[in-house]
Each structure stands twice: as C-alpha cells, then as structure tokens.
Design a protein that fits this description.
107 residues; alpha+beta; 4 helices; 3 strands; 58% helix
C-alpha cells in the first residue's frame, strides 16, 4: 500500500501489478492518529496486510501531527512578528500595553 499526502488529506493506493498501475482506495484526514477514526467503509476495502500497514502508518502519525502543528505555529509566529514590526511605534506601544494587561488578567 502507498500513502501520498495531498493537502490536508492522505490518499491510500494499492498497486495492481497485473495492470501496472495503482488504484486509489480512499483518503483520510492528516490529523487522525488511530484506525478507530477511519471510515469503516474504507477499512472494509483493505486487506488484513494493508490494515497492518495503516496501523504502522498511525504509529508515526502522532509525531508527524506534532511536527506539522509546530511548523504551523512557527509560521504563524513569524507572520505575526512581521506584522507587529510593520506597525508604527505608537501602535506597537499600544498593542504591547493591551497584551500585557490581557496576560495579567489571565493570572
């Protein structure tokens, strides 16, 4: 079985050696980490060996999702920093004071 990421989903393919092509079995969201979250109709299409391969794929899913989340947060932080730095000094000061007040209110 082959796994290919396409956007926010991972597509599952089975290679058909007789026809020298691959057949798409279905797709799953990138953020699921267990076979319990997979559509039962898709699981019914899979052979027992392919279910084992899917479980092995999910073994690495938690670290993969954590890395994707960290990368997304890093990108977001970089964009927010760039936006903050593009503000005039007065607006930066006002935003800094507002955020400080919000953080103190949470404590």
């Amino acid at each position: 079985m082959e796994f290919r990421k396409h956007g926010d989903r991972t597509k599952l393919y089975r290679y058909l050696p007789d026809e020298r092509r691959r057949c798409m079995l279905g797709s799953i969201p990138n953020d699921i980490t267990d076979t319990a979250d997979v559509d039962p109709a898709l699981l019914a299409k899979l052979e027992p060996v392919e279910v084992k391969q899917l479980r092995a794929w999910f073994t690495g899913a938690r670290p993969r999702v954590a890395r994707q989340t960290a990368a997304s947060l890093s990108t977001l932080a970089a964009k927010m920093t760039a936006l903050y730095n593009s503000l005039p000094q007065e607006e930066q000061q006002a935003l800094r004071q507002r955020l400080t007040a919000e953080m103190q209110a949470w404590r």
